[in-house]
Amino acid sequence: MVITRDITERLKTEELLRKSEKLDVVGQLATAIAHEIRNPLATIKGFIQLIQSMKNKENQWYIDVISSEIEQIEVITNRFMIVAKPQAVKIQLNNLSMLAEQVITLLQPKAMMNNIQIRTVLKSEIPYIPCEGNQLKQVFINILENAIEAMSTGGEILVQIDTLDSHQVSICFIDQGCGIPSERIPYLGEPFYSIKEKGVGLGLMICYEIVEAHQGKIVIESEMNKGTTVNVILPIYYRSYQRILLISFMGKAFR
Question: Which of 34, 123, 183, 219 lies 20 to 30 Å from 98, alpha-carbon distance?
Fold first, then answer.
């Protein structure tokens, strides 16, 4: 007697449980790190403010540099806390093309320093879509920063925005970087999984979370030594329109 049983759904459930456990660890780790950094940071910041009040011109330049770095550390720790604690954000209609242009303008200097040109192509008239604009901009920033870092010899990044049909829009980022091995692509977005030497594997994970919370998806295709295409697909209309969406925010992405 031979008995067969389809365990596909069970395997999918087990995979979701593993991801859920990893996300829980990420949240706990982020909270612990943020608290550990904040305590000595508050002391350092207090002493810097005390020194500033003395108005010693000889040390002012060093104080300014230290203050700037402390502010950057504060930004990072706050992002850790936000990763650990989801936020309620408002969904409203946004101009997707404008969001992309704002991000490109922000990253244009960094691209130019790396001998990279960012070019935008609008293939059709793009309707306004319901989304949280700042979070989508953060997704675009992370993807473009990854593309810039992958193109050590310079080149061009193409950003194509198009409507796939009456229900979906596509924001496609095409770089000419080093590419990603095909066997690694299925694991992108996993907590702590990174293909970069100094990557921590949290950025893309949050990118996936944000896009999925917007009822969209990210599709990544790549070929070694030729480049990578990251396609962010978003719905024009929500299946169930929500004014409040609970999703996590993110800091700098690492691929």
Answer: 219
Query: Residue 177 CB: number of other CB atoms within 10 A?
Result: 23
Distance CA 208, CA 110 (A): 24
Which residue do the tokens 């000419």 mark? Answer: 176
- The token duo for 131 is 């989304």
Listing DSSP states for 55-73 in one string gives T-GGGHHHHHHHHHHHHHH
Q: Summarize pLDDT for 189-240 with one digit per residue, the tens.
A: 776 656 665 555 667 877 888 888 888 999 999 888 889 999 999 998 755 4
Residue 255 has pLDDT above 50, yes or no: no
d(CA 180, CA 172): 17
Phi-psi domain of 201 (left: phi exceeds 0; alpha: psi -120 through 50; beta: other): left
> In degrees to the nearest 10, what's the CA dihedral of 177, 181, 184, 185?
60
Q: Give Cα separations from 236 to 11, 160, 215 (angstroms).
A: 32, 17, 10
Q: Is 129 helix (H, G, I), strand (E, B) or coil?
A: strand
Task: Identify whether the C-beta of residue 53 lies closer than 8 Å to the C-beta of residue 220.
Answer: no
- Supply the pTM of this predicted model: 0.63
Domain ranges, ordered by start, for the chain: 8-85, 89-247
